[in-house]
Amino acid sequence: MSHPKIERFGTSGFQPIVSIIVLNWNGATWLPKCLASIREQTLAKNIETIFVDNASADNSVEIARELLKEFHAACLVINGQNLGFSGGNNIGAEYSTGQYLFFLNPDTWLEPDCIENLIEAVRLAGADAATPLVLNYHDDSYQDMGFFGFDIFGLPSPSKPQTTMREIFIAGGCSLLIDRALFFRIGGFDPEFFMYSEDADLSWRVWIAGGKIIGVPKARVHHRGASTTNPAGGEKPIEFRTTVEKRFLTNRNGLLMLLKNAQHLLLLFVPIQISFLTVESILITLLLRQTSYFRKAYLNALVDCWRLRHHVLRERRRVARFRKRGDFWMLRFLRLHPNRWFEIKRLFTFGLPKIDSRQH
Questions:
Q1: Count of alpha carbons within 13 Å of 78, Cβ hemisphere only?
Q2: DSSP letters of 264-311?
Q3: What CATH code is carried by the domain that includes residue 31?
Q4: What's the pLDDT score for residue 235?
């Protein structure tokens, strides 16, 4: 892997409270509003902005370069290849200097006091990581506030609207705040995940290491979501579209997360989740009449988990070295609310999903 190209703007040598890392891949459409919302933060003079581009084919770099020239302190990181969510954000973290890291998707915009409220809540609660209240991009309707726990299949359990700060199991990757020292101590994002479920994997390790994650409804961010896999409609999705690659990575990474982080008892979720995914994949294959879906999105996910078995074993040994909480402690996050309920509701809204075979 070649070294990225680095360009710096604004003030250097100061100690920011937070480094905001915006990872981009062909997101030129969203950048002006996203970056403007960072400049307008009440803590703007205490923010370092790191824009990481994952080899975009559009004019993202040119747009970002012009906008970052007006920032108090900023860094443009240009990768020579697409390293995915995990690798790209890890690169951004390496060039950060803030006490906290805030990973932010480009298809977002922050309300002016978002970062200030988030930092204040983390310090007040003695937390190590957090996510703001995530609203839909075009209005104030609720999207999520991370994930409150895991369901009976070992999949992340969705959140519900909240008015008060609370502990959560997973800080959502579109807007994830974490103590920088802890991020590096527990190994950052797993590069093997590439994208999807990497936020769940990182959050599990935060709790394992003795940390604490909170959701902060007073801090508000607006998020489009799935802007590359489901772009139709602009600011507001008008269809249910996904890709075979996304389903493959989501299935594979959910299993990898369990295999890496479960100590003993929670490893029982592995066969349970495999059984669930088998049934789900067969049903989707029949509904869509795409016989290749089962192989590409499901069987290939299992095969790739086996391919990564040595990585899993290395990660289990590494996690064991900083583990402070075991499976029985983690059972407090078990929820009955099923992970797939959100997708079932989307079926009633948009109908059967359209599945593309294209890849990043």
A1: 13
A2: SGGGGHHHHHHHHHHHHHHHHHHHHT-HHHIIIIIIHHHHHHHHTHHH
A3: 3.90.550.10
A4: 59
- Considering the domain boundaries, does residue 249 fall inside one? yes
Global pTM?
0.91
Q: Which domain holds residue 158?
A: 5-223
193 and 152 in a common domain: yes
DSSP line for 107-134: SEEE-TTHHHHHHHHHHHHT-SEEEEEE
Q: Count the domains in the chain.
A: 2
In percent, the amount of the chain with pLDDT more than 70 equals: 89
Give the C-alpha separation, 263 to 186, whole Å: 16
Same domain, 160 and 27: yes
Tens digit of each residue's pLDDT (9 = 90 or more) over 284-312: 888 878 788 899 989 999 999 999 999 99
Residue 216 sits in the same domain as residue 245 = no
Q: What is the pLDDT of residues 103-121, one digit of tens each?
A: 999 999 999 999 999 999 9
Rounded CA separation 283/203 (Å): 31
Output the pLDDT for position 360: 44
- Secondary structure (3-state) at 46: helix
What's the rounded Cα separation, in Å, for the pair 248 and 343? Answer: 16
Distance of CA 273 to the CA centre of its chain: 21
